[in-house]
Design a protein that fits this description.
heterodimer, A: Glutaredoxin, 2 domains, 7 helices, disordered N terminus, B: alpha/beta, Glutaredoxin, Rossmann fold, 5 domains, four-stranded mixed β-sheet
């Protein structure tokens, strides 16, 4: 479980999140959403804290985390790139963009590059169907995308570092 | 807290103030600049446009003009959209740099900024919103306030008869009368299955229980569907009001709305709506002194398609893995925490207040024999006017695709339209004149679904499309029952084999058999409908499947294993544009020489196809 080890001083953050909610088991998903948003993933430490707070076994929490695609057990990359695979984007060729991304970064969907810089996600409809095909980099939407445009943006990001 | 009298007062004064939003002949001297803040336009930076307008107005100290953010206008393809009222001018693809010109010309001098007007299908520029052919055949009931009011202002909702239906229900109607009105209207569930809404309310009311719940299903998971999101973003109070009416009718005092966490704007606006309604005493204890208590809470989804299935959704609200329950018992009898629960979809709720106010006869006069009212569709894919449309039931597919959607771009041919997402099917050209209602769509092997309508041109391979949907269901199957968990996976394997050029004729029989068995034996709607995209494409595009397995050919050239990109030597002029565009340097050749593609390097991305000015790449 090495990858789940939390490196930051985040206990206070979890406490803050937990205190917003009653000790009601049905709040589990809301809490997980908050943690995911704040930390970029659900660290082991957070799972332990939630387990104690809501009195739910760790195994059950793990079961919920792995069921929902929004929750991840690994940190996302500094640049999280999500390619929309909603039908509208798919019809306009978003698969090609995802394929190119995977080929170039040499990682699969849901993975993060070894240097922690990039992670890829194939996401469902982000709702910008009028701009299809669409990908997002850290939640910023880039519409009417082409393979070339993606390549240029990656070149730019890589040159920055 | 506001009394009914105070709310009536707000309604009157606000209605006068906002008259110009709906009345082009309004006598006011004010002008309102409405800017779309749906997810589509927000992605193309409409908040910056709003900011810029306000800055300029501040700078120039202009009076009698207001800048308002609204929900979706519908024509997402032309976003960001700005509308000036009362004259109803429609500006398309506006940028922050255009704001100054709009203010100076239009607002200050009453001159239209020609260059920002929208081109209609025939290529002519059109000034007014209702002159655009996109809007002509539409009828807006569920979307009536979208693009008209500021969704974060309860007073604007109240101005256009908001919360009047709730008042009428609480003061004048018994629960049975409400049920009768809804039943007589003929409204059916807009989530896809089309169960009669009145019947559902009646069953939940009749169920015995000390505690009951109302739930709104806003877990809009179909890829390419954004109707419910647009309603929540554009008119959240209509759902709050309808849920309160439903709660009064069935005897509930607590409601939940289950929204995808991927919809941050919708979640935010709905929360604002709840807070405002509480502040006005429209949610809470003893509403308007009638003794009726009702409150609402938001629950977030977390990216699981199966949670759109009603019993899986209930599990998820309870904080568990969203796996469907075996039915019966239905949620009307044993739902949330085992209590009788009413679940309706966002769009269904969005119709309720209108039906109460205008009567069941008015509603049932719209639509077809068995499907009443209107339906909202998210029109997308290979069509010119991508966006949100609301049409009376019975409108034909042809009218939607050509008259409203403006036809297929790039001079290509219509091949098929897909409705119902991963649970629906493809509708081929020969059925373009089918009127859209629950029964007709079912008859031709598709379904109404929640309202995603994706148009495809002749560059789309139908086998690859079926594979795309199967990939979706395989990754979204919850794993509870074997036919769905294993069966869909086997189907996907066969489809992958076919797309890779390794399929055989027997594979087609196997697909058919598997599909039938999965439909018969799955626990929930997801599995029972997962094979539909395969069945319908096999029915209408059988020859394409056969070409894939016999001649090993993909006529749409989408299945890469069967296609090669080559440069036609006769047409190539040696300009080298393709070479520069290639992301993997697979195109070889010196300056002014005819180029060649190194097939080992080529990833078949198709970038070069678009780059060649001589159409020499095939």
């Amino acid at each position: 479980m090495e990858q789940n080890k939390c490196n930051c001083n985040c206990e206070g953050v979890y406490k803050e999140i937990l205190e917003k909610y009653d000790k009601d088991k049905s709040n589990l998903i809301k809490i997980l959403n908050d943690v995911q948003e704040k930390a970029g993933y659900i660290p082991m430490k957070a799972q332990e804290e939630i387990s104690k707070y809501l009195d739910i076994p760790m195994a059950e929490i793990y079961g919920v985390i792995t069921f929902y695609s929004r929750f991840t057990l690994k940190p996302k990359g500094k640049y999280h790139i999500a390619v929309c695979l909603g039908t509208a984007c798919y019809v306009k060729g978003s698969q090609k963009i995802l394929d190119r991304l995977k080929e170039r970064l040499k990682i699969e969907e849901g993975e993060t590059t070894a240097d922690g810089k990039f992670s890829i996600e194939a996401t469902r409809c982000v709702g910008a169907c009028g701009l299809a095909p669409v990908f997002t980099i850290n939640n910023e939407v880039h519409g009417k995308a082409t393979v070339k445009m993606l390549d240029e943006m990656l070149d730019k990001i890589e040159a920055e570092a | 807290m506001k009394t009914l009298q105070e709310i009536e007062e707000i309604r009157k004064t606000k209605r006068e103030e906002l008259d110009l939003r709906k009345n082009q002949n309004s006598k006011t001297r004010e002008k309102h600049i409405l800017i779309c803040h749906g997810t589509g336009c927000t992605s193309s930076k409409s908040p910056e446009i709003l900011k810029r307008f306000r800055e300029i107005i501040e700078e120039k100290k202009i009076e009698n003009v207001r800048v308002i953010k609204t929900g979706c206008f519908g024509l997402c393809a032309k976003g960001p959209v700005v509308i000036i009222r009362p004259d109803d001018t429609f500006y398309a693809m506006v940028t922050p740099d255009d704001c100054e010109e709009i203010i100076e010309k239009h607002i200050m001098n009453g001159e239209v900024v020609e260059r920002l007007l929208c081109k209609d299908i025939d290529g002519k520029k059109v000034q007014k919103l209702d002159e655009l052919s996109f809007y002509k055949k539409q009828k807006r009931i569920a979307l009536k306030n979208c693009g008209v009011i500021d969704p974060e202002e309860i007073d604007e909702y109240i101005a256009f008869d908001g919360y009047k239906a709730l008042e009428k229900v609480l003061k004048e109607m018994t629960p049975d009368e409400v049920i009768k009105t809804i039943s007589d209207s003929g409204l059916r569930g807009r989530g896809g299955a089309g169960f009669p809404t009145g019947k559902k309310w009646e069953l939940t009311k009749a169920a015995v229980g000390d505690q009951k719940y109302v739930v709104c299903n806003a877990d809009e998971g179909d890829p390419g569907a954004f109707m419910d999101r647009s309603i929540l973003e554009g008119d959240p109070h209509s759902v709050v009001e309808a849920m309160a009416i439903a709660a009064y009718t069935i005897g509930a005092n607590q409601g939940y709305i289950y929204v995808r966490a991927e919809y941050p704007i919708a979640v935010h606006r709905f929360q604002v709506a709840i807070d405002q309604a509480r502040e006005y005493g429209i949610l809470g204890k003893n509403i308007w002194g009638t003794g009726f208590d009702f409150d609402l809470d938001i629950r977030l989804g977390a990216g699981a398609f199966v949670c759109g299935e009603e019993t899986a959704l209930l599990e998820s609200i309870e904080g568990k893995r969203g796996q469907p329950r075996v039915k019966p018992p239905f949620p009307a009898v044993a739902g949330l925490w085992g209590k009788p629960t009413l679940i309706n979809n966002v769009e269904t709720y969005a119709n309720i207040a209108q039906i109460i106010l205008n009567g069941s006869e008015w509603y049932s006069s719209i639509g077809t024999e068995t499907s009443k009212g209107t339906k909202v569709f998210a029109l997308g894919g290979n069509v010119n006017n991508i966006g949100l449309v609301e049409v009376p039931m019975g409108t034909t597919l042809r009218e939607i695709v050509y008259d409203i959607g403006g036809g297929i771009p790039n001079g290509r041919e219509f091949k098929a339209a897909q409705t119902g997402g991963p649970s629906g099917g493809c509708i081929p050209k020969e059925h373009l004149d089918t009127p859209i209602d629950y029964e007709s769509l079912k008859q031709i092997g598709s379904m109404m679904g929640s309202g995603g309508l994706i148009v495809m041109d002749d560059t789309k391979c139908m086998v690859a499309l079926a594979k795309f949907y199967l990939e979706f269901t395989v990754s979204e199957s919850c794993g509870k029952c074997t036919p769905c968990r294993v069966g869909t996976k086997r189907m996907l394997e066969i489809l992958t084999k076919i797309c890779d050029g390794k399929g055989s004729k027997e594979d087609l029989d196997k697909l058919q058999k598997l599909a039938t068995n999965i439909i018969k034996s799955s626990v929930c709607g997801l599995g029972q409908s997962a094979p539909n995209p395969v069945i319908s494409t096999m029915k209408y595009f059988k020859d394409e499947y056969e070409e894939h397995v016999i001649q090993k050919e993909c006529r749409a050239k989408e299945c890469k294993a069967m296609s090669k990109i080559v440069i036609n030597e006769e047409k190539c002029k040696g300009c080298g544009l393709c070479q520069r565009s290639c992301p993997v340097s697979a195109i070889e050749g010196e300056a002014r020489e005819k180029r060649k593609i190194n097939q080992d390097k080529c990833i078949k991305c198709g970038t070069c196809l678009a780059s060649c000015p001589f159409k020499a790449i095939e």
